[in-house]
Amino acid sequence: MRPRPAEWQLALPLALAYAAFFLVPLALLILVSAFDDERITTIGFAQWRSFLGDPFTWKVIFDTVKLGVVTVVATAVIGYPIALVFLGAGPRWQRVILFVVILPLLTSVVVRTFAWIVILGREGVVNQAVLWLGLAPAPLNLLQTEPGLVIALTQIEMPLLLLPLLSVMSRMDPNLRDASAGLGASRWRTLLRV
């Protein structure tokens, strides 16, 4: 009987691939950026000064971070109630909810992107609903805007938040919530602390 390999031996091929295809090119990119000329002979930081001195660069960084934060908050605000419904549902409904959560991961990103173009377009479902409800006199421009991007990114990232959240919350003892309520904690305090 052969001895089982250690955990680090199992992770070694992935670590080598990660180093070869991510860390080495990143290190080379940083090294090349430390030179001022195309022949890589004069060391200097003109490239970095140019990059960090450009206001457009800082605007892009700020907009990217803001978009990421808004998407995470939107995903958490929508995902947490879904996780609570999952925990309160019976085993049959839990399977249905889990299937609906996993379904987007089984669909290509390209297909999902085209679906969002159709849904958020001027003749899409969202605009038709807005017009039918009388919430706007004309179709909204949701494509290629920040709100449309947040909506699409929230849907794309939802399974990546929900699957770990469902795993953690399903291992939590349900008596903890009852004990918290019994000790006088409000629902919000229970939500934040337990």
What is shown here, in short?
By secondary structure, this protein is mainly α. It contains 9 helices and no strands. It has helices at 7-33, 46-53, 55-88, 91-102, 109-120, 125-133, 146-170, 175-182, 187-193.
SS-based structural class?
mainly alpha
Q: Roughly how many Å is the radius of gyration?
A: 24 Å
| Gap from first CA to last CA | 47 Å
Q: Name the average pLDDT.
A: 88
| Percent helix | over 70%
The tally of beta strands, per DSSP, is: 0
Low-confidence segments: none
Could you characterize the architecture of this molecule?
The structure is a single chain. Helix 3 crosses helix 7. This protein has 9 helices and no strands. The protein starts with 6 loop residues before the first helix and ends with a helix. It is mainly alpha-helical. It has a domain of 97 residues. The radius of gyration is 24 Å and the shape is extended.
